[in-house]
Amino acid sequence: MSEYKYLSGFGSHFSSEDERYPNSLPVGQNSPQVCPYKLYAEQLSGSAFTAPRTENVRTWLYRKLPSAVHLPFQPFKGAEYFRQNWDEQPPNPNQLRWKPFDLPPKDGKRVNFVEGLHTVCGAGDPRSRHGLAIHIYSCNSSMDNSAFYNSDGDFLIVPQQGVLDITTEFGRMSVAPNEICVIPQGIRFAVNVDSPSRGYILEVYDGHFVLPDLGPIGANGLANPRDFETPVAWFDDRDVKDFQVISKFQGRLFVAKQNHSVFDVVAWHGNYVPFKYDLSKFMVINSVSFDHCDPSIFTVLTCPSLRAGTAIADFVIFPPRWSVQEHTFRPPYYHRNCMSEFMGLILGKYEAKEDGFAAGGATLHSMMTPHGPDVKCFEGASNAKLVPERVAEGTQAFMFESSLSLAVTKWGEETCQKLDAAYYECWQALKNNFQITKN
Ligand SMILES: [Fe+2]
């Protein structure tokens, strides 16, 4: 049985039935007033009812019981570092680098995906639907008889270690390192793991992730729509009496009990769906003559703001590729940016800093915080013979780039104890090479 079908493009219409129950989708206006198999119809709206047609997203779910059947929500105890308080720490304009974040301790304690969420930095407020948060997850056990949904925004999940087996209301997805998935606002899901697992999450409050426009690149390139996959309908046939639904609502977690599983959707149709993408399928566009393209050329997905061309957050990768430019310094340039740049490393070593930036770690270069290649990279690239070469082979670095100025949490700055106080030293040995005569 195939777990997935290809998306033919964002905004397309999809439909899916659990293969055990054929013809479970009502057919247009010829449907009876009772759904096939006596299922309940429930709409999940991902945009305002009146959003323009190009942005209007919703899905109809045909399920055994409506989601409304649950006991009242209570505050959830756990995940104490999953918080959106941007005023815990004074602002820090320094270059920040984290050593790899901890996996769960090997003391036998079980930590599931929700319990293992830790917020590193962010900005804005889910109540006004503007902003973002960046989290690390670190877990070693599965979510048994429980599910999570985010009332505040979308999750873009980037596994770094361990495969995530994700059950959603729409069906199941397996997401491995070097793949990503997006779980849009409100969609319930549970994560199963069979080994210690770690990764990064970009949460956006403003809107949904979409493919970037390609402009003069044309119809093909970067992340191609046909490579995105969404689950086929599947439901949990077990008789579950004690199920927990955990909701992130206005930055806090709440839990409600119910005597049925949320994974009871037999069929669905619509265009508001979870999806996954294999980063190895990204079609790299790069310079083939001279000069250095901006990293926006590597954008996989973007959450646009209302300002033209300016993202709440872009998800950008630095995949293996050919480097063939002439007459130019090939690694990333020295840089000061009106955007915030949070980087992570899924595997391998990052070309601009081969030492110190390790898989499972991160860096944050905030607004107008200078950054760029370290001494070793600068010296090497300044003297390299400019022949075509493969770069970033065996690696996958990524960037969450935002037009918002990000505050670091107390967990990110202190509690996690991974901040590398010596990071600034990587630039200190750069020499002033200025000379009156031309080289
Ligand atoms: Fe930069």
**First-last Cα distance:** 64 Å
Q: What is the CATH class name of the largest domain?
A: Mainly Beta
The arrangement of helices and strands along the chain is EEEEEEEEEEEEEEEEEEEEEEEEEHEEEH
User: What small molecules accompany the polymer chains?
Assistant: fe (ii) ion
Average predicted local confidence, pLDDT: 93
CATH architecture of the largest domain: Sandwich
Give the C-alpha Rg.
23 Å
Q: Share of helix among residues? A: under 10%
Reported for the largest beta sheet, the result is: 9 strands, antiparallel
Domain Homogentisate 1,2-dioxygenase N-terminal: 5-279
GO biological process, one term: L-phenylalanine catabolic process
Organism: Drosophila simulans (Fruit fly)
Cofactor: Fe cation
Would you mind describing this structure in some detail?
With 439 residues, the protein is mostly beta strands. The chain folds into two domains: 4-279, Sandwich (Jelly Rolls), CATH 2.60.120; 284-417, Jelly Rolls. 3% of the residues lie in helices and 35% in strands. The chain has two helices and 28 strands. The protein has helices at 375-382, 410-415; strands at 4-6, 14-17, 40-45, 58-63, 74-75, 96-98, 117-125, 130-139, 146-150, 154-161, 164-168, 171-175, 179-183, 189-192, 197-204, 228-231, 243-249, 252-258, 265-270, 275-278, 299-304, 311-318, 321-323, 340-347, 362-365, 389-391, 396-402, 407-408. The longest helix is centred in the last third of the chain and has 8 residues, at 375-382. The N and C termini lie far apart (64 Å). The mean pLDDT is 93. Bound molecules: fe (ii) ion. Fe (ii) ion binds at residues 335, 337, 341, 365, 371. GO terms for molecular function: homogentisate 1,2-dioxygenase activity; metal ion binding. Residues 280-434 form the Homogentisate 1,2-dioxygenase C-terminal domain. It catalyses: homogentisate + O2 = 4-maleylacetoacetate + H(+).
